[in-house]
Batch of 2 targets.
Target 1
Amino acid sequence: MCRHIGYVGVPVPVGEILTRGPHSLRTQSWAPRDMRGGGTINADGFGVAWWGSGPVPVTRYRNADPIWTDPAVEEVLPQLTSPAVLGVVRSATVGMPVQRSACAPFLWDRWAFSHNGVIPRWRSVLTAVLSDLDVAATRAGMTRRYETSHLLEAEALTDSAALWELLRRLLDPEPPAGLAETPGTALRLLVTGVLHHAPDSRVNLLLGDGGGLWATTCYHSLSALITDEFAILSSEPYDDDPRWQPLPDRSLVHAEPGRLSVETLEAGRSTATESLPL
Ligand code: GLN
């Protein structure tokens, strides 16, 4: 499956987040250590998003070729500096297209998103999740509709691109309000909805807005490295810094510089907030 990394903190060269450490994201593309049976290498393209102060809040670069073949990683991306970066290397799920538009991060507004995993039978499962959301919105007296036609707006015919079409609507704060009050509740609502219809789904999600990172762990690995200067969430640690913390499966994670919160993902247990020692 894919590998992803999110960074927020003191400004860094964008390319450096892809190549930092002896077990960098780029190295994880050809020599990952913890794939848990979901593929062997991550050679079906890569992408990186970064945030700036210009008119466009978040920008990205993507390529459907393996990350180690692209000279921009050494020659261009290190010239850009940003306080937040979200990088992904992709291993396409069997049957899904290998193309640039299927490479995360997916963007909308100030958000960038990546999915490490797979949703079996994603077309019918995500249609059912949309329908559940629509019923919930109607019950809550909202005028907003969640329609299956939203899935047609997905950038690529993949589970991850379609999942983003649902999540970005849950994140949309414009009135009428979405069902989710915070990015964390949006992720929880979506992942529990997917698991309800396809309990065998693998849904490690990573979401950033340039100021914070939110993530879920559901089957795949994720570790956190938090200091006062920066916060990093990464599928695999990129070095042997003893401050890396492996995050438990079935968690909802929120990270900012100097702060990590880990809650149980399951609905109804959201009060089990635990701030891990840093
Ligand atoms: N299913 C997604 C895709 O094909 C993500 C794959 C992954 O995590 N390797 O793009």
Note: The helical segments are 14-19, 25-30, 72-75, 122-139, 159-171, 183-197.
Target 2
Amino acid sequence: MKLIYEGKAKKIYDDFKTVKGQPTVIMEFKDSLTAFNAQKKGQFSQKGQLNLKFSQKVFEMLSEKGVAHHVVEVLDQNRIRVLKLKMLPVEVVVRNKTAGSLAQRLGFAEGIQLKKPLVEFYLKNDTLQDPLLTENQIETLEIMTFDEIKAAQVLALKINLELLQFFNHVGVDLIDFKIEMGKDESSKLYLADEITPDSCRLWDQKTQEKLDKDVFRRDLGDVGEAYKKIAQKIGIEI
Ligand code: ADP
Ligand code: TMP
Ligand code: ASP
């Protein structure tokens, strides 16, 4: 088994296995936690397995609603087998309420309901700190085609609708989230990477308590406890 990539939260190994003729890789969820492009580093025990279980539960729900995702099988507490995809070079962010970089950049308070969900694209480039892209830039600079942009927007909005319902059901507001997508050899588009408290903003509807990575980013308390709380709400025990 060969380590082919180590990122901030996960490692990718290739064991050269195919599933139904499709190449796969192994994705390992680490206990580490970073923010601000890894300028701030942390970790907590069992974070990797908590995020794996969280993402798995959400992906399974999305799969039932017709969303194709990259997970092939769960191998153990920290590792899953996924389709080896050609990743779109962007992070796709969907926002339902103002928060984070949107609120900061435009001088808005956090928590204001948006008229409709906002889909944004950020270039995946750590050196440039993942800059925001316009659709025009993406098409003109040939980062993605027009059809890829439209397909990514449609998939992101469908996922948003399902996630809003899923979290609302357990008394949690989905403020915003980030997803990544990739294509297989036949150019079919899949939801890839993860959906976890690292990649979403989740606020308790009653208390407005933040149950996501902002607890770590902003030093708001015990991030491990926040992750356990949101995991419990969606029925995960660690
Ligand atoms: P980062 O690269 O931002 O530090 P991670 O530590 O989460 O993030 O690393 C996981 C990497 O795996 C990301 O670069 C992501 O784009 C990539 N990835 C996610 N799913 C797949 C997949 N199915 N096939 C290939 N690469 C993937
Ligand atoms: P932002 O407000 O900082 O742009 O973040 C929007 C959403 O994307 C939020 O739910 C956190 C998530 N996110 C990531 O998953 N990875 C990142 O690198 C960043 C900047 C945000
Ligand atoms: N994902 C980025 C990092 O790990 C930024 C963030 O989530 O705040 O540094």
Note: Residues 146-168 form the longest helix (23 residues).
